[in-house]
Amino acid sequence: MPNTAKDAARVVLESACDGRVVVSVPKSHYRIDFVDDSKGVCARREIGRPFNAIIHASALKMHRASGGGTFIEPVDGHPRIVQGRILATDATRNKTLVHAVVPIWISVPQGQAAADFTTGELVNFYVESGASIASIDG
């Protein structure tokens, strides 16, 4: 999966400690806690500075949604419930790129196929613990 502007999230580092980072999403109240999946690169960034990152999470079961907006719950903490629109699918890796406040690559759970979801479709799901973020700015 190439890192492009479409799948990068623009976030601001709020804190970093013990392999975990908290980032905020500009122009929102979101403060999301992730595992630092970039070998400490996120932690070496300056607090309060924006950077581009790729976010990965695993869905427990994906559901099609018929209404509502895009969101990540809770607004402050580890992501638990996500709703967003499909931006792209990677059938080979069984992943979907979902825009839910920020773009997130979602591993589709066993028994479901990324190819079953179409671009533009609204989906929601619970997220497994351990959602991760990796800096792509170097």
Descriptive overview:
By secondary structure, the chain is an all-beta fold. The protein has one domain. Helix content is 0%, strand content 52%. Strands 1, 2, 3, 4, 5, 6, 7, 8, 9, 10 and 11 form an eleven-stranded mixed sheet that branches. The model has no long low-confidence stretch (mean pLDDT 91).
Beta-strand content: over 45%
Q: Radius of gyration from the CA trace?
A: 14 Å
For the termini, the CA-CA separation is 17 Å
The total tally of domains equals 1
Summarize model confidence as the mean pLDDT: 91
Structural class: mainly beta
- Based on Cα principal axes, name the global outline: globular
Count of individual helical segments: 0
Low-confidence spans: none
Largest sheet properties: 11 strands, mixed
* Element order: H for helix, E for strand: EEEEEEEEEEE
